[in-house]
Specification:
By secondary structure, the chain is mostly helical. It has one domain. The longest helix is centred in the last third of the chain and has 10 residues.
């Protein structure tokens, strides 16, 4: 089985944990969110980025919370790629919220 990509790898945004970081190019919140580590087979929030607040929005600026950005995420190639790859093991937002608030 091929390695599952995290959002920063798939989108090639430059905000992943292994990219050269500077004050003007910080690590995205999805790459820092350890509460979602392992969800959908990803590293930190890398395969549940749509649920992580204040993500870098694929290099288009910081995006707010889940309710602000979810409509955009529904049009994202990566979101649908994750849904297809994990199939019936896709974690719904209610479960993701539980993971973040029970740590």
């Amino acid at each position: 089985m091929a390695k599952l990509q995290n959002c920063w790898e798939f989108m090639k945004c430059g905000f992943g944990p292994d990219d050269g970081k500077t004050r003007s190019n910080p690590v995205c919140a999805a790459a820092r969110e350890i509460g979602l580590n392992g969800v959908h087979g990803g590293t930190n929030g890398g395969r549940a980025c749509w649920f992580v607040d204040n993500t870098r929005n694929c290099g288009k600026g910081v995006k707010g919370d889940f309710s602000d950005k979810y409509p955009d995420c529904m049009n994202c190639r990566f979101y649908w790629k994750v849904r297809e790859e994990v199939g019936n093991k896709f974690e719904i937002s209610l479960l993701l919220n539980t993971y973040l608030h029970n740590k």
